[in-house]
Task: structure prediction
Amino acid sequence: MKKIAIFASGNGTNAQRIIEYFADHPVVKVDLVLSNNPDAFVLKRVTPYHIPTLVFTRDEFYHSSKILDILQERNIDFIVLAGFLWLIPGNLLEEYSDRIINIHPALLPKFGGKGMFGLRVHEAVLNSKQSKSGITIHLVNETYDDGQIIFQEQCDVEPSDTPESLAAKIHALEHEYYPVVIEALLHDPEEEDQ
Ligand code: GAR
Result:
């Protein structure tokens, strides 16, 4: 069994979708949901699924080994960022090298970087008259939205689109593809044979 921890700062629709996708999955288990934001709706959203949640402070995240210790105690194999807005500290990057992924609501390397999240991304896409937008799933490194790209999927940007309508299209793509990409990354054919 591969255990996932999901980090989320906000609403948590992707977290919920991932949890639902892997409920009763033979290989992948969502074991923990973490947030830097005690008021994040994701914490309420996941309560029906009886998955442990953990809220942490900036100090705990950046100046202690608390989060790494907990992930290791729980034997977490893989970290999924789903609308998580803080940079990942060096101790986690080192221990989970190539095992932390993020989803971004645009076609990186454009429209990424510090401060580019939520509707701001879609406003920037619309302001620069792009005909396409989409989603990017990428490995996480020490820079915002910068790691190796694993997967992208496009959608059309219509002249009538607003940031909100584009956000809805992008969310639909995220919900469709993020769990499937996670599953493909964690799929170990040898484990299935045992
Ligand atoms: C998602 O659209 C995700 O791509 C974005 O935050 C949203 C979270 O939605 N992430 C970023 O912008 C990261 N730079 P959710 O809370 O409903 O899952």
Q: What stands out?
A: The first strand starts at residue 2 and ends at 7.
